[in-house]
Amino acid sequence: MIERDDEADRTWCISEVDIFRDLSAAVMDAIAAAAPMRAYGAGEILHSPQQPCEVLFILKRGRVRIFRVSADGRALTTAIISPGTIFGEMVLLGQRMYDNFAEALDDVTVCVMSRADVHRYLLSDPRIAARITEILGRRLADLEQRLSDSVFKSVPQRIATTLSTLAARADTRTGRLRPGTRHAQIALTHEQLAALAGTSRETTTKVLHEFADRGMLHLARGRITVLDPGHLSDAAG
Fold first, then answer.
1. With 90 as the cut, is the pLDDT of residue 108 above it?
2. Confidence at residue 178, expressed as pLDDT on a 0 to 100 scale
3. Number of structural domains in the chain
4. pLDDT at residue 94 is higher than 80
5. Which whole number is the average pLDDT over 194-204?
6. What is the largest CA-CA distance in the chain?
7. pLDDT in tens, 149-176
8. Are residues 188 and 129 in the same domain?
9. Alpha-carbon torsion 191, 49, 72, 141, what sign?
């Protein structure tokens, strides 16, 4: 992990982050000064149950995987966090990590805020507080949908659903498809996708090859390209 405090970098870290839109330059500068920037390499752990600390991460660049590990060593991925949003242990916001780990999937840049600064700069502004509530509400809805899918959908349907969801957020720094972009690239290994879909790597690989044979996907090492999002959506049920 690398901590960076360059003056020019501070504002960059929180610029274009959705929850801070419409703020004045003075307010942005104050928030940036209170949220030092840190960089993590792919595979590094940003948070673990063994290192409890009440901080809020604002994700600027890269993706972060939230996962937990069972007693027998199996990992369950609960979320993939995209740039422009928040995660972390912050009781003030109802944001808890519990026994979860946070791992950088790519080279990641985050800004880190303490409890006192979250209260001072974020919760005191109704606009920011409302946007944070919206983010946490969407994340809860995503978890509920995944729980429903695990009960009612087949494994191929769950994999197709996961790919469709990721494709809608893929291909740009902020996690959104560019206008007119048809082929979304998803940078995940088969094992990571399996953890998201709640199945085994072997089964995931088999289903992915079936989807590729049907022209819906192109498979490469560590990357899945969605070629036919319409038929993939149909496969998701």
1. yes
2. 43
3. 2
4. no
5. 89
6. 54
7. 888 999 999 999 999 988 887 644 434 4
8. no
9. negative
Nearest to 57 by CA among 74, 73, 36: 36
Classify the C-alpha dihedral 5-103-88-138 as positive or negative.
positive
Is pLDDT above 70 for 91? no
Closest CA to 189 of 42, 14, 48, 38: 42
C-alpha 101/C-alpha 196 separation (Å) is 14
Q: Is the Cβ–Cβ distance between 109 and 62 less than 8 Å?
A: yes
Position 23, amino acid:
L
Identify the band that residue 64 occupies on the pLDDT scale cut at 50, 70 and 90. very high
Last residue of a domain, one of 112, 145, 178: 145
Q: Are residues 56 and 118 in contact, defined by beta-carbon separation less than 8 angstroms?
A: yes
pTM of structure: 0.74
Structural domain for 98, as ranges: 2-145
* Closest to 155 (Cα-Cα) out of 192, 190, 200, 191: 200
Reported confidence tier of residue 206, pLDDT bands at 50, 70, 90: very high
Mean pLDDT computed over 209-232: 93
The answer to whether residues 122 and 73 touch, using CB atoms and an 8 Å cutoff, is: no
CATH number at residue 213: 1.10.10.10
d(CA 178, CA 71) in angstroms, rounded, equals: 41
Range list of β-strands (E), 62-177? 64-69, 75-81, 85-88, 101-104, 108-114
Number of residues assigned to the chain? 237
Residue with tokens 């088999």: 206
DSSP class of 32: H
- Contact between 57 and 82 under an 8 Å Cβ cutoff? The reply is no
Place of tokens 């007693």: 71
Q: What pLDDT, on a 0 to 100 scale, did the predictor assign at position 71?
A: 81
